[in-house]
Amino acid sequence: MQKEQEFIDRLYARVDALRGVAADSVTDALTPVGTGQQARLERDLLVVERSGLLAALNAVDGSLCFGRIDLTDGVTHHIGRIGIRDDDTEHTPILIDWRAPVARPFYLATGHLPMGLRRRRHLTTEGRTVTELHDEILDLGDDERTGFEDPSGDAVLLAALNSARTGRMGDIVQTIQAEQDRIIRHDHRGVLVVEGGPGTGKTAVALHRAAFLLYEHRELLAKRAVLIVGPNPAFLSYISEVLPALGETGVLLATVGELYPGVHATAVDTPRAAAVKGAASMTEALALAVRDRQQLPEPGAPLIIRHDDGDLILDWEIAYEARQAARDTLLPHNLARPHFAFRILDALTQQLAERIGADPYGGPNFLGPDDLAQLGKGVAASADVHAAIEDLWPTLTAERVVADFLAEPVGMADEDAAALRRPVTGPADWTPADVPLLDEAAELIGYDDAAERAAAEAARQERIAYAQGVLDLSRGSETYEFEDEDESEVLAAHDIVDADRVADWYEEEDHRSAAERAAADRTWAFGHIIVDEAQELSPMAWRLLMRRSPTRSMTLVGDPAQTAEEAGVGAWDKILQPYVEDRFEHTRLGVNYRTPSEIMDVAAAVLRAEHPDYEPPASVRSTGVRPWRRAVTGDVAQVVAEIAAAETPEEGRLAVIAPRALHGALAAVLPGVVAGAEPDLTRHLVLLDPRQAKGLEFDRVIVVEPGEFGVSDLYVALTRATQSLGVVHVGELPVALLGLAVAD
Ligand SMILES: Nc1ncnc2c1ncn2[C@@H]1O[C@H](COP(=O)(O)OP(=O)(O)OP(=O)(O)O)[C@@H](O)[C@H]1O
Question: Is ipTM > 0.95 here?
């Protein structure tokens, strides 16, 4: 213990020193330097590196080092959240990043397959003090003992699983299990599906995989950012601290409803409307809605446009041909519009020319090319002509298209149209299910960013030219900078960068991180996307996400048994086929770390009542505490409040999971609970409905009126507790719950 404490002291001394250096170089960057381009360039490089390091050092301070491996050849490595090197000339690693290949045996080695290890040690620290050591002997022939042996090898894991919940998910970096490690480091580059029952660590694994990918492909992912999609904001705040605790901050967490920049979707759909909006058939309905905006004058009722050189007649034939030509380009609506406009202008100019320049005796037209050009200019300058074009082929916005569609849904079955029909009069009327529709509409109408792109490219070329100048200068100075032959080993900035990259650094107008820029850009292509509770997503939501991931680098996490969304699609094949055919990897997790076996047995019985073949994940522990039920005849809210008062832990969390209809009554009697609001998971007592409870966990759970839930919702509700479960009911109980211990 003393030796480990000395190591930890040395480690933190180094961390403090690094922090000081990092802070200084960030401060330096704020003061102008006058020592030439080379110095400035190298200083900037250092700042980029050091400020990242500073952020990581600040984030991982708690239990920075958590493990040690002793190899049979006598070498030992300490394992931690990030890698730290010594200040010596070799920059010897003192702490190995958990994601480095050297650290892998820490997670995978067993007595049967020791992977070169003699011993694995778990270090538990509080602040900077070592409080516990747990050793596992992996070389069975080795009889040296430390006195910290943990014969079962799972004391640290069980302590983590039994610890009081905080309302925020913690990382599992100290106790990642072998089956989880294989998924975290899986080298499949495309779509990786992680499936498993409740509590198998799917979310934890996905988040650690994000951290691993950021480590493995830092360069790419720092630029393109990682997106983590979750089912609701409460879930996203529940998982929000995991990646920062692993030193990773370049990640955007969002629900699908937050992925259309500029729209804050707060209104709520009926379940039926959400289901209709999520269906794949909406693609065609919206395409039709956009085509519907490409109008023609009625046959025989042309538009008459007053013009200085005589009235212009825009009839059905002219408009039809122009529309056909524009549609034949296969461009999105707004991008095809110039083609439509050009055809109309051309036809009207011809019309005018035929009228003005016609030879009354049937000879060729009097007008020459110059006259025609002049006439064309006149037509093109006419505001009335443009107004007519705008009438027939308006410039659209996605918001306009979807709002008009919802006001009068075209091309839908009557009952679907009735479910959708709703006025959208302002930004507060958008719902999360509208967001994939807006995204679809934005694709259908296109966005003409030609001018913006040209300006951005010109600015970029300017920066490249500047950066090239910087590099040329630094190359010119290399002879006297590195006169000493031995010094040629030292890399200068220009050895490892090119003008393109330097240009990126000098992109001074935009100091936002990649994640911040991604959040503001609908067309952003993320480096990797992780989707939690993926079984919840509708086909339309998948279309949106796939657009954000042209490389299809994705990790999808889900459990079909926990799905209740009406628009949710059953099988992965069906979801993924249109995007990657069968080129996805399917992985499974089979051990439940959250729910003790006493509770899991009850939950499994509920699911088996409908799906007799269902195989639940095996619980890693049992607590000896039996779940209970209590029948109530009077005021159920009052009874729940009494139980909650007795059960709410001082440390840890109690959740009351009840049907929405009871939330008002329950909120009135449960202290600190507000009905209808986003649940505050950091409070000791939380009120939720089963949908809100998805993905979350609590020490204790009371499920109220379970007879009102569908099977998958009930399954979710019953599998949220790490310690104890109770059921309170007035109405009838599902048969599978009748065997619970009766409480009074
Ligand atoms: N290797 C591990 N070490 C310590 N804790 C773990 C480990 N694996 C999972 N856990 C814990 O088990 C709990 C369940 O994990 P997680 O929420 O990731 O499961 P899940 O499969 O996403 O569950 P659900 O589908 O029910 O939402 C979490 O508290 C997590 O920290």
Answer: yes
